[in-house]
């Protein structure tokens, strides 16, 4: 089993910052990618940012230049530094871990952490 513990969500004013953390534990012998997705009410879950063990990073266009993803391999933890937050960034943010390889990936998601942005 894989356990993902997310933290750092909360309420922030527009223009503010938050930092999300996600620590993975359990059967995580072959982490290939870690990242964040989000889902706002009435919308589909969407990718926010991912980072591979090789350091390849992918951002959604909507967060480029504002969000920064990073990881601590020794701690199996991924972070998402969010700055210049906008009301449209409000959503439940889900940590995602992909085990295996790029061609054979088993994905696991956390329970989610709420991010609320007031205008």
Descriptive report:
- This protein has 119 residues and is mainly β.
- It contains no helices and eleven strands.
- The strands form two sheets. Strands 2, 4, 5, 6, 9, 10 and 11 form a seven-stranded mixed beta sheet that branches.
- The protein starts with a strand and ends with a strand.
Measured by DSSP, the beta-strand proportion falls in: over 45%
Look at the helices and sheets and give the structural class: mainly beta
CA-based shape: globular
Task: Indicate the low-confidence ranges by residue numbers.
Answer: none
Alpha plus pi helix count: 0
Radius of gyration, Cα only, in angstroms? 14 Å
Topology, element by element:
Layout: E1 2-7, E2 10-13, E3 18-26, E4 31-39, E5 46-52, E6 57-59, E7 67-72, E8 77-82, E9 91-100, E10 105-109, E11 113-118
Parallel strand pairs: 2-11
Antiparallel strand pairs: 1-3, 3-8, 4-5, 4-9, 5-6, 7-8, 9-10, 9-11
């Amino acid at each position: 089993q894989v356990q993902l513990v997310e933290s750092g969500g909360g309420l922030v004013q527009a223009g503010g910052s938050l930092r999300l953390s996600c620590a993975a534990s359990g059967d995580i012998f072959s982490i290939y990618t870690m990242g964040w997705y989000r889902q706002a009410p009435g919308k589909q879950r969407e990718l926010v940012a991912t980072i591979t063990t090789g350091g390849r990073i992918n951002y959604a266009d909507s967060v480029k230049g504002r969000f920064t993803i990073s990881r601590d391999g020794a701690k199996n933890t991924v972070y998402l530094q969010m700055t210049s937050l906008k009301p449209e960034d409000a959503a439940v943010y889900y940590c995602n871990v992909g085990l295996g390889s790029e061609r054979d990936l088993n994905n696991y998601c956390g329970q989610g952490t709420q991010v609320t942005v007031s205008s």
